[in-house]
Amino acid sequence: MAKQDGQANLNALKAQEARTEQLVKKHEAILDLYIKQGKEQEDITKKAKTLENAYVKMSRTQKKILEIEESISKEEAKQEKSLNNQLLSGGGLLTVTEKMKSAVSFISKTQRDTANTMAVTLNQAKQINKEIAKELKFGLIVDTTREEILESMNEMDDLFRTSNGYSANQAKTLSITANKLNISRGEAAKLSGLMQLIDGSSSETANATLALGKNLADASGVKFGKVMKDISNSGRDFSNATGMSLKNMIRTAIETRKMGFELNDALGLATNLLDVESSIESQMKFNVLTGRQANFDRARALVLENDMAGALDEVRKQVGDISDLNILEIQSLQQATGLRADQLQIANSIADNAANNLSNTEAANQAYAEGNTQLAEQLLSREHATTAAEMMENAEKNIKESVASQLADQNKLKGIMLGIQVVQAALAGIATVKAIAEVTAMSALTLGVGALAIGAGIATGVAAMTGAFSSAKPPQMNDGVIGSDGGMLVSGPKGSIQLNKDDSIIAGTNLGGGGGSSAIGEKLDKMINLLSQQRVLNVSGTQLAEVMDLERVPVGMG
Amino acid sequence: MNLQKIVTAMLGLFFAKKGISSIAKKRALRDPKIQQRIKDITTELEQLNRELEQD
């Protein structure tokens, strides 16, 4: 509104001025009529007086109008200069374009990254990013990131062989769980996926199982990360051989690790014990050699019940201390159980030093067996998915990516980038004249959207003109004469010199035969000296003219 | 190509100049002193017009 006031006031003034002219003309016409009609002198004088008065006042206001127009022009010129300076300095404009460029780059990079990670097209990546952005809202923006979710999604893609087997929401929950339990996202995704595929668990149950498994591992004094790795390495073979569910396998992996074994050892024991004939033969051989009464029947039964941890413990107990066994005795033990001597020694050592809180382990075991989701939620809520610094970083990243996912239309972005390139290229052109680094307080934003176009216009213009003129080469001439043509100005490092208007310039290479100006002078002096000895010059017998009366070449010539 | 660049540049400069002039004029007219002077002259003209209409 305020912007229009100035113009409105000026329009009002112009309207009044036009009205005055109209009224004056009317009075002039009336006076003319009075005279023609032969009105009384008094009326004519009165009308003439009115007009005279109007003329005086009009002249006064017209002077004022001229003055005000002059003031407006001056102020306009001042404003124009200021605007030009601000725009040409480029700081504000450059800052704006830089920000836009970096935003567009960011959006494109995010989209490309998703496309590459998930092996999908840019349009599909845009959709995935949108879905992830939808999931990462409110408090969750600090717990995980798009990249982490993609990692989980990618792993699940491999497992499910399709993208339809899971949702962005599941991948997000899994990613946060992995962060909270500080386990590898890839392994967590693999395990969760297998629980869903093999055990038929829901993703929520699989998630809870991971949390409860971590709880059981903690209570058992083993690292859950190591358990995960063990399952990742041997889980598939173990599952194929035993037909055990993923959930039970996690428990087995924890229990065997607690004893110093891994899933692979349990699988080796099971294979050996179930090769009944050979196993019994080796068992007898071991007993004969050592004089012990080891019996693996119960262990064999436990294997058949899929209680691998129980079987391992039973074998360890039956074998007892092995530190004094000889090589033959150890070989027979290995043949019977499939376990190496060092493993059994470690298992014995752990069992001797075990000071576990049994009640804690039992409670954790029971919660795991029951799949206590409430406890799982509590356990997860107690854990932090990220550190304070990661939290800030994630929040910033997720907010940016969330906005980016909404703007990721490559066609529009390409247009924006093209525009930015033009403006920036132009600004780069004038950067040599104006210090762009000096970001002025004024920004293009204060001038409104139009300023961007104006700035772009100026910048493009100046840059193109600069380029055009700087690339234009002056005309070339080899040896010749430049005519006077009414005066000449010679420019050089020492400034410009105005030549006599009737002078011509003779240009040539090695005009005096080389040697510089002093050499030419010397030659001319020598010639003058020779010629001065005779008044008339003869060339091949032809008399040319009288020799000039010179003694030396004038200073500055030659 | 160079000619095209120059034409584009000239057009750019032309429109830029027009845009800047327009903004500069608007800013000049928003100057409070100028506004007051315009209003004063308008009042004087209004007064003169009233007088002329009465006569």
SSE inventory with pairings:
The complex is a heterodimer of chains A (558) and B (55).
Chain A: H1 2-37, H2 41-89, H3 91-118, H4 122-135, H5 146-160, H6 168-181, H7 185-199, H8 203-220, H9 224-242, H10 246-258, H11 263-274, H12 276-290, H13 297-304, H14 308-319, H15 327-337, H16 341-353, H17 358-370, H18 373-382, H19 388-407, H20 410-430, H21 450-471, E1 480-482, E2 489-492, E3 495-498, E4 505-507, H22 516-531, E5 536-539, E6 542-546
Antiparallel strand pairs in A: 1-4, 2-3, 5-6
Helix pairs in contact in A: 1-2, 3-4, 3-19, 3-20, 4-19, 5-6, 5-7, 6-7, 6-8, 7-8, 7-9, 8-10, 8-17, 8-18, 9-10, 11-14, 12-15, 13-14, 20-21
Chain B: H1 2-29, H2 32-54
Description:
Chain A has helices at 2-37, 41-89, 91-118, 122-135, 146-160, 168-181, 185-199, 203-220, 224-242, 246-258, 263-274, 276-290, 297-304, 308-319, 327-337, 341-353, 358-370, 373-382, 388-407, 410-430, 450-471, 516-531; strands spanning 480-482, 489-492, 495-498, 505-507, 536-539, 542-546. Chain A is mainly alpha-helical and 558 residues long. Chain A has three domains: 2-88; 103-389, no CATH class; 513-558, no CATH class. A two-stranded antiparallel ribbon of chain A has the order 1-4. Chain A is elongated, with a radius of gyration of 50 Å. Chain B is an all-alpha fold and 55 residues long. Chain B is elongated. Chain B is built from two helices and no strands. Chain B has one domain (2-54). The longest helix of chain B has 28 residues, at 2-29.
